[in-house]
Amino acid sequence: MHQDISSASAVSLAPDGIVLAIETSCDETSAAVLRGAEVASNVISSQLEHSRYGGVVPELASRAHLSVISTVVREALSEAGIGIADVDAVAVTSHPGLVGSLIVGANFAKGLALRYSLPLVAVNHIEGHIYSAFLNAEQPEFPFLALVVSGGHTALFRVFSFRRAEVLGSTRDDAAGEAFDKTAKMLGLGYPGGIAIDRLAAGGRADAIAFPRAMMRDDNFDFSFSGLKTAVRTYLQREHPGGVADASLPDICASLQEAIADVLVRKTLRAADRYGLRDIVIAGGVSANSRLRSLFAEQARRAGRRVLIPAIEFCTDNAAMIGLIGRQKLLGGSADDLQFTVHSRPLRAERRKPGSFRDIPAFAAKEADSASSDGGS
Ligand code: KG4
Ligand code: ZN
Fold first, then answer.
1. Which atom of ligand 1 is nearest to the CA of 315?
2. 319 and 349 co-located in one domain
3. Are residues 300 and 329 in the same domain?
4. Taking the model in full, what pTM does it have?
5. 41 vs 77: CA distance, rounded Å
6. Which of 132, 287, 320, 368 has its CB 3.0 to 4.6 Å from that of 282, i.e. a possible disulfide?
7. Which residue ranges have their beta carbon within 6 Å of ligand 1?
8. Domain shared by 291 and 151, yes or no
9. How do residues 86-141 score in pLDDT, each as one tens digit?
10. CA–CA separation, 69 vs 14, rounded Å?
């Protein structure tokens, strides 16, 4: 059963209304309460069961969401000091993500909406990241540039309003977070690997190994990180055939981190120049990286740009950012009905279709048009 989300029903939410938001697109189960624009709670339960596999195992992820979701939602309500009867609307991530994981959150949200007769709104996870800087005290001004850089996505957007953002470029293969995670797996550092690499890099030399910077010369805003992963593998086979000694880890991590940060910072600043945008928002899990933050701060100051990075709890996957977008949609008078479906469609697959993804409401409708075969609730 498939319903185009553009045929949403009309609702109204008071500006100080209470939104309960749920996010289960990958391996974090999160629930948040927004009272007006203020985040009253943001509970995040991270799944540890994937660590020994070096990546997220979808079946384990959906089971783990199922086992904790009601506790996480209850905690979010209690931390906000409210009960379900106080909630005015429910927002939930519908795409993109792991279908089995998305279904858990979507069905839970649908159940609440049905039982308590609440308006329900389906939210695009990437939209959540793009606007997550609005959860900070220091907020961006439209139009701004947004770099979404996570385990699943690496893309640059020109953001005009809450209703409109244009994709300037995205990764052609792996996301930047995957380059961190796959290198960490090769080095035996577990999953997720970004934070382990970040910590080890602190004691290493960033210029120790010249890892490649892909697509730097291209006159576009796309990225590619799969060659970097291959370069690391080749380097390890050549220089450390018997395995990497602990003493060599910091230099490898610092050099890899530098290669990723260098490409992200330079291409983003180039886009800011091209489109004359002062404010740059960096969001998604990789924006927690310390070198990416310091390089952005340093280079952007020199270029006269303002860099805004959400607090760490709003950088990695969280329900507060879903609540923020859900609230905007509800304030604009739209909601979804109980038939909406979840789907996995990543940005990079959509980008292959010329003309698609030009602005957010348009891509939401296009995705919904072809979503039913991806599975759903
Ligand atoms: O946004 P997020 O929580 O989930 C996705 O939507 O993918 O991002 C997770 C990604 C993982 O690849 C993880 O390794 C990376 O963010 N990450 C980091 C750091 N902290 C998390 N990468 C580099 N340095 C970090 N400090
Ligand atoms: Zn994410």
1. 1
2. yes
3. no
4. 0.87
5. 8
6. 287
7. 26, 150-152, 177, 180-181, 192-195, 198, 284-286, 288-289, 316-317
8. yes
9. 999 999 999 888 999 999 999 999 999 999 999 999 999 999 999 999 999 899 99
10. 27
